[in-house]
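Lab notebook, bench 4. The sequencing result for the construct came back, and we need a structural model before the next group meeting so we can plan mutations. Quick request posted to the team channel:

Model the 3D structure of this chain.
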Amino acid sequence: MYSGLFELPWWGYVVYTLVVTHITIAAVTIYLHRHSAHRALDLHPVVSHFFRLWLWLTTGMETKAWTAIHRKHHARCETEEDPHSPQILGINTLLFQGADLYKRAAKDQEILEKFGHGTPDDWMERNIYAAHSVWGIALMMIVNFILFGFLGIVIWVVQMSWIPIFAAGVINGIGHYIGYRSYDAEDASRNILPWGILIGGEELHNNHHAYPTSARLSSKWYEFDIGWLYIRTLETIGLARVHRVAPQVRLAAAKADCDAATLQAVITHRYDVLTHYARTLKGTCVEELNKLRAARAVRVDSALLRRSLSSETPSLQEAEKADLKQALEHSTVLATIHHMRDELTALWQRSTATTDQLVVQLNDWCKRAEASGISALEKFSKRLRSYV
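Done. Here's the predicted structure in token form:
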């Protein structure tokens, strides 16, 4: 039986497999995702073409198709038009049929034309990568067989399964279903792990949805994005140029009155603002809920109350909305907290209002919050006025 040009110990084959699959993950997160889809950085032509070649060999994916599908995902996130939302299609569909969803969307010319602009359209793309996508993965199989014999075919199968499982299934599925949220983004995105190594940093999916054009996906001190490490290395040696990273939250002494700079900071960090609103007011809401339970006035549970303080409110079922409405009717404190949150989010949704008008509204919001008699709301308002 042919054993290839190289015979390795068992762990050698494992290391080789992990290295080649990790290069594929790096190509997806650095080239397809952060460079092509979101224009967060520029890559030197040598680097970008290496990634294009490698993706042709290991996935058969086209830059235009992947870019277009991902851009539509952001534009239509968690709606019927989202190409891969577990909230709409179900988590099992994403886990086990994620690759099929991608293939189906890649054949939709309307998606490609509307969202695929700015992607490579050179001779190699038209005549090799896009025209003969199967050739690449077939060539990879031959190379693996020459190197390691029939074990190389096993490695090839793992390579071909890596992106469908981890990208289509884990990131697109679990990344919108289970995990922690650093930011109260307007979708169901989750951070799967705080150490973005296995999938190149893509585990930090909630961070990405909060700041989609950021080349860095980590935002907290305990989060690690290995894709960002590679990008900084490429930038240091002149092979990449970063355009944007997520702005870091900065707080100064609270101003007596909000101004245009405060307004801009609040809008820029709106997901951080909403996250801290929910965390600051959570204790007060639980206390009110316990009072209502003791009086046997409502059926609302703490999980529903937590969701009602976040951007997940629209996803509540009709029965849950009815229970929440009943709770708000029985508690002035809960009603005030929810009403003030709605007013706060309206500040960055009023596109027709001028900056001066929005500053007046923000100042009015802070004054009413601090006069509400709710200590947690007053505490949050003072923090809000300290954003810079």
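The chain is about 60% helix and 5% strand.
Will bring this to the meeting.
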